What we know:
The complex is a heterodimer. By secondary structure, chain A is an alpha/beta fold. Helices cover about 50% and strands about 10% of the residues of chain A. Chain A contains 21 helices and 12 strands. In chain A, strands 2-3-4-1-5-6-12-11 form an 8-stranded mixed beta sheet, with helices on both faces. In chain B, strand 11 and strand 12 form a beta hairpin.
Amino acid sequence: MDLDIRRGEVFCLVGESGCGKTSTGKAILKLVEATDGDILLEMPQEDARTYDEARTRPDDPRSREALDGVRRKYSVTWKENLPWAAGQILIFVLAILAATFLAIFVPSLALGVLRDPFASPWPIIGFCLSIGLILGSVGSLPPTRISRRTRVIVALLTLGSVVIAPVAVLFIHRALTGDTSRFEVGAAMASPWAEDPAAMILGLGLAVSAAGGACALLLDWRERSEGLTGIRMRSIRRRLQLIFQDPYESLNPKQSVYEIISEPLAVNRISRNPEETSASVREALSDVGLRPPEEFIFRFPHELSGGQRQRVSIAAALVLQPDFIVADEPVSMLDVSIRTEILDVMMELRSRRDLTYLFITHDLSLAWVIADRIAVMYLGKIVELGTTEQVIGHPMHPYTKALISVVPSPDPRHKVERIILKGERPDPVDIPSGCRFHPRCPLAFERCGWAAEEVADQLRSLKADGLLAGAGDFEVSEAGTVRVSVGSLSADALVMELNALLSERRDAYLPLKGIAEVRAANGAIELSLHESSEPPLLEIEPGNFVACHLVTQPAPIGPSVTA
Amino acid sequence: MAALLEVRDLTIEFTTKAGIVHAVEGASFDVERGEALGLAGESGCGKTTTALALMRLLPYNGRIVRGSISFAGRSLVPLEEASMRAIRWKEMSIVFQGAMNSLNPVQRVGRQIAEPIILHEDADSDVALKRAGDLLELVGISRNRLNDYPHEFSGGMRQRVMIAMALACDPKLVIADEPVTALDVMIQAQILDLLERLRRELDLAMILISHDLSVLADTCEQVTIMYAGKTMESGKTMDLFTDPKHPYTQGLVGAFPDIRGPRNMPEAIPGDVPSLISPPSGCVFHPRCKFAFDRCSNAEPELSELAPGRRAACFLYPEVTEVPGRSMPIATR
């Protein structure tokens, strides 16, 4: 699904339970990982245009580049596409080198210093170099792992230990001993090994553990190289917050109001001292209408009423000064009178703090009064999107129409004909072909995506009702047609009967509309089906999108029934 | 002819450690044959308690202090438990709140529907199972599913099963406590549609309990609004919702957004439901009432008849002229 939410608006996501509303909200907050797609935050219009344009040409390398550029800047789900292999090999080689150096020079250093501190500068220089290599491998970690400042510090330290320290050591050694002869590096290194088996064991141990550390680093990197981690996500996370549905479950009963609200501050390391924390908590509490804050700050959830609890959970979301709040059914568990209070608080905060809401609800009458724009979801897809007046005032999609018609109204004068859909939402594991709503759609027509299995089932049940008594079995062929074997009637008579049935009963038994042609073939009858596709979400009026063949291309297909 | 169910001055108390809870006080209503009565109010206002008292299923610490319940000419309050058992389920049954989650998970649903039939009608299990099949079809489920377990049904289907169970012994009155709460809108519509159809086909009387006025507006003929155990207003659904008299009813009606009305933000009723152990003096609603005046905190208004079949307990009616300088409250819509 594609969705734009504009700054400062209340965007409602509505639909039956299990339609994917909550999953969408969670994916936006990265509480569940999206399988694919982008969640772009604070993208200016020009970039949005670039992005949309580039997305229409996914094969063009230039547009891929443009896409990556936009994603790198705004995407919450961006997966860093650095040349991982090269970087990993670099780190690995550096780390192994460092390990070997350490293994050789640390025992030399230890023994040499013990014996005669000025005998040779090489162990110290080797030690400095290996520390430099370790720092170097840390410094070449990808940008998502370490911040720019850390990288600069590490680079300076690396430079220091690889270049400056060895040179300094050499000069100091020469100054102290007056020795200007060339050193036998190999001999200096080898001597302690030969002299002292203990040093050898120490060296080997160090080498193995350093190599192990390098491998661990490598694996860890592979694992974490996906997506935004650490620093950048943390800064994004505090600006995106969530209000949960049930304040009886979302508040920890063992925490006081103060602890509940101050926890996000501590987790995000925002406030510097207790005074600041306390001031933020108080401000959040009075913002949600729990005044004076002192009266509530030390209470526990069980000492609060339902409405007060939900206010506390809103305060906990607000304390981080977020810009965007996902409110997942924030009032559906509350009593009517409290419900309105909470909505008032939310709407007031929106104007005061310039908040943007993604409001997830199954209650269309609620969406009607609070939403600026609404998206109606069915089985994981948006079927209709537009302003509240467009979607609820003038619904276009049959599903939206049905949903609106069944919403009860507190005014008995406003009775309307209820369009009650049969059955419950299908299993998202087994999504219907064509338009996913067609099996429940009261207006489904030829091109909505009837599958051979549906048509065959309908024919079987008609036979069970005695309507097609002359037919034999109904089978779905591999080519996606329905084969009707001949029963008591001859093939020709059966074709006649089927045609009669189609022309008379198509409106009563909608799956029959899927039949495009009735043909006698090889002693059986073959029913071919209309071609279909999933309806795309198309703009039918400015800002109003509908995914329905009936609305977007209602070209009639006559019953092409031939004998 | 007398009404099927007549409740007069029903008063129920619970004895708890914290004190006596005045759960229901002076509830009076009638349910005619084939009629649906809605009981509405915020949570904790005594709706469910009233329903339990009608079935004589109050928990051990609750008792009917005074008042009468007369069902089909029989008085239920003084009835022995044994005779009550003969009425329960056979004449009057209940679909409990959240009932769809109370099916026995390890028993096939057919067996569960058949159980009351076997117990109450002394039927043998084949007959009872056959009837259970009929009942399932009545509520729109194929009888092939008699042998399924509850987990194989969706929430809406389980609610249908519970309704089938309530209908098992052909009762005259069915009490449905929040029958559609926690269900999806579309399923909600399916269940309400089913209840309406059953009512028509079986000439059932029904008491529908809901906090959602809009559900009642769609289905009931009569509505009683309760608050803190007291009846605030009662009358025909159409009159009550289009021209609510009691400030509490006005508040409740105004608290619901109307998808077919203008896009107004609903209005909140400030404050919380009071404690039923020490309810406010005078009118229980006065601390939250925007029209409250001196008298409201001193004396308790009687439930008085404003028009035929229309009663409200508020000092604003009918003596509204006695309050100088106070305009008539206008309905919020």
